[in-house]
Amino acid sequence: MFGLFLYIQNLKVKEIEKKLHDVMIDWYFEQTKEKIWLGSE
User: Fold this and answer.
1) For residue 32, which phi and psi values (nearest 5 degrees)?
2) What is the pLDDT of residue 24?
3) pLDDT above 90: residue 31
4) Please, is 12 exposed, middle or buried when counting C-beta atoms within 10 Å of its C-beta (0-12, 13-18, 19+)?
5) Spatial CB neighbours of 10, under 8 Å, sequence gap ≥ 6
């Protein structure tokens, strides 16, 4: 039962993370049309 609880909590966290990511990306592209590059520098 505890494992199921942790699994459900993990799903909720991932849902929140995705929503936050979408909000950040939407905001960025409202400010500019420049591409986003992921780098390791």
Assistant:
1) -155, 165
2) 94
3) yes
4) exposed
5) none
